[in-house]
């Protein structure tokens, strides 16, 4: 097994040194700002033959799913297909009954291919996410859950500062650096004006931005998002997907469960389609947007008739649906 984060601290220190030497720069290089992460090759996610059963019912059946490094991947599928479950399994919030989830420090092999290491190709470095100590996993990967509510009387700023926990000593308080990262994360998530509010008093859309800011403050290399736009107005949806694209440009790997297939077509590089079945959710298609978001794949999965149009300025697919 190879350590996939060899120089994070060095990179962060070098970045903060650069900031302190350059008064024109207002933040440090981190996910909270839009500076590119330094010395850090993006990490992919490779889930193989993942199974999960609850109350004797198979929810995910031998699911193979990948998120290529530094790409935005959409996890798609109808209600109940198992998208949130798969994200929670990848994040280590729940344990699968079978299969494995690896971080991959090189090109992610296609399902059906072995991992490079097994084939004697040492350039593909992997690390078992499920066996990883919790704290280390939290430094590498963040999950923003759907409708994550809290009853704790926390201010927004304190909630976002919780994202710094994996990066500091067990008994250490918030440092100036933690507070700077949290403030920049709030700014980047469009939630800076909420910093002093109690989280419990926020609207659904406001809360969603705050949870995203908490995840940014965590400075993960892999960001898992469960329906990140479901409470957002149209401008906020665009802002969120544009933020997701800029995170990927910084080298963050994003895997996002999405219901809006046109939004997925505009923002994703890669998509994975899960379909529910009587014997558990399965992946029915995965690959580039242009190959997967087509009527042949979507119609049977969603039980609709899909038409693929073209966006007048981006040329990317715009999908419309009619009853089957
Ligand atoms: N803790 C649990 N106990 C019982 N059933 C569960 C549990 N977690 C998930 N399920 C079931 O597993 C299936 C998949 O749920 P999941 O939330 O992963 O689907 P989803 O694709 O995210 O759905 P949606 O699009 O509606 O959010 C559903 O039938 C759900 O009821």
TrEMBL record:
Keywords: ATP-binding, Nucleotide-binding
Claim: Oxidoreductase is one of the keywords in the record: no
Organism superkingdom: Bacteria
Any Pfam family: ABC_tran
ABC transporter domain ranges (all copies): 45-301
GO molecular function (one): ATP hydrolysis activity
InterPro entries from the UniProt entry: AAA+_ATPase, ABC_transporter-like_ATP-bd, P-loop_NTPase
Chain spans, region Disordered: 1-37
SUPFAM superfamilies: P-loop containing nucleoside triphosphate hydrolases
Transmembrane intervals: none
Protein name: ABC transporter ATP-binding protein
Species assigned in the record: Xylanimonas oleitrophica
